Amino acid sequence: MRKMVLYDTTLRDGTQAEGISLTVNDKLRIVKKLDDLGIDYIEGGWPGSNPKDMEFFIRAKRLKLKHAKITAFGSTRRARTKPSQDMNIKALLKSGCSVCTVFGKSWDLHVKDILKVSLNENLDMISDTISYLKSRKIKVFFDAEHFFDGYKYNPDYANKALQAAQDAGAEAIILCDTNGGMLTCELADVVLQVKPRINVSLGIHCHNDSEMAVANSVAAVMAGCDHIQGTINGYGERCGNANLCSIIPSLQVKLGIKCLSSAKLKELTEVSYYVAEACNMKQLDTQAFVGSSAFAHKGGVHVNAVLKKPQSYEHIEPQIVGNKRRILISELSGKSTLLTKARELHIGLRKNSDHTIKILKLLQDMEYQGYHFEAAEASFELLLNRQMKKHKKFFELEGFRVINEKDEDGCLYSEARIKVRVKKKIKHTVCEGQGPIDALDGALRESLVGFYPKLADMHLSDFKVRVLDEKAGTAAKVRVLIQSQDSEKSWWTIGVSENIIEAGWQALVDSVEYKLLKG
Questions:
Q1: How far apart are CA 75 and CA 415, in angstroms?
Q2: What is the rounded CA–CA span in Å between residue 332 and residue 363?
Q3: Which CATH number fits domain 5-278: 3.40.50.2000, 3.40.50.300, 3.40.1650.10, 3.20.20.70?
Q4: CA distance to 5, 166, 204, 229, per residue, from 158 (Å)
């Protein structure tokens, strides 16, 4: 089986994405995760560019990696400067890495108009830098920056840049679509033309400005590249880099080109989420292969088919990449969807029973009113239990009042007074909060915790409000989604009403009752 070299640049190129800023500790944690996954090379950063990256390389030397090698990234020497005197190259050596990736210009436009040096001087900069690093026992990869644009406008010079790197001893030459503007058919044709000229490893590095980074990377491999660069989740500057979470399974599952062991491929989804969390980025639900919606089925016809024959609506088995199939509940749901979800929850429903028909009609009506049960599966489970007469009432509301006040110092606070009946006893509680729902949450749980101590382990972690019909103005219905969590899990509940406090109360009650139901 053909083997692919995987080169991850999340810690360098990925951190150039808007909204991402990693601490040194974050970077070290990601290195260990990528090493465990089986990535071959992990680009740690540009040691000559900032103190944080240099600290990373110092601390990374202490890591005991099982597989990966950490690489340092930098540029060719400056014009009219010897490599031994160039501060960036000194920083590459100081990083202590046995592998360095050096980028150089391969587009004559950049040479003449950006660097403002002669074409021959640029070739010398490439050659001198690589030769010097090689003399210091460093393995060198050469990133031919803007290669495809350069090849389009001046193929002879772009090839000379590659030749200079190869003659100087580069052990891999990486063709870069730095602007991300290449179409797949164009890029593959260029790789096919370049491949016969290169007698070392040939790599590909694509950006996603035309939404083609993954397709271009796969096409480059099919055209002869054996070294592929990208980032986890496609993080990177502008529109991002080629997404390794899509490239790896595309190559391995679809084309039979080995990237990871089968066992490690099953960890891909978990690694995707881990890196998203470390980068403080919300994981994209619709991300191919690893997103939570990648194998989610909503339409009744689709669900019916996928339950009979998964490949009818799934291009691979989700377990291969560590993901899972999800059946969603909505107004589009048919009996098959409802019965499948009921089985998952260990609730007995029969296909043509009155209960099933009644619940399906109720779901469709509630979704029409604005409920969204695919986003609030805890509320859906409670709804099923209530309709099947299996729901236990843990308390009854006698009434509540919420007061919002702003004092003379401009501080706004909410106070909730609540009266509930619990086990034939009346409990009257007052609580302040940052807002009306926070105050109600505090008052309700304070009323109940003496009867149900497990509620002390629970708290609200997210709160979302959406206006369902903005044209109705202040009379519009609102949907409130509440996420709650305890020490082991989290769950979402929902409420819908023209009154935001009532909608929040509905979601809040479901949240508490779900916790009490599950323990």
A1: 60
A2: 10
A3: 3.20.20.70
A4: 24, 13, 15, 20
Architecture of the domain delimited by 395-451: 2-Layer Sandwich (3.30)
The token pair at 378 is 């805890």
Whole-number Å distance between alpha carbons of 244 and 267? 13
pLDDT band per the 50, 70, 90 thresholds, residue 320? very high
Residue 387 reports pLDDT greater than 90: no
Amino acid letter, residue 174: I
Q: Two tokens at 474?
A: 């202040």
With 0-12 CB in 10 A as exposed, 13-18 as middle and 19+ as buried, what is 286? exposed
221-267: per-residue pLDDT in tens? 999 999 999 999 999 999 999 999 999 999 999 999 999 999 999 99
Phi (first) and psi of residue 155, to 5 degrees: -60, -35
Q: Where along the chain do its domains lie? A: 5-278, 296-387, 395-451
HEC string for 61-125: CCCCCCCCEEEEEEECCCCCCCHHHCHHHHHHHHCCCCEEEEEEECCHHHHHHHHCCCHHHHHHH
The answer to whether the beta carbons of residues 315 and 359 sit under 8 Å apart is no
Quick: pLDDT tens for 447-464.
999 999 999 888 888 888
Place of tokens 């001893």: 169
Among residues 73, 72, 65, 54, the alpha carbon closest in space to that of 30 is found at: 65
Mean pLDDT of the residues in the chain: 89
For 318-382, give the secondary structure using H, E and C. HHHHCCCCEECCCCCCCHHHHHHHHHHCCCCCCCCCHHHHHHHHHHHHHHHHCCCHHHCHHHHHH
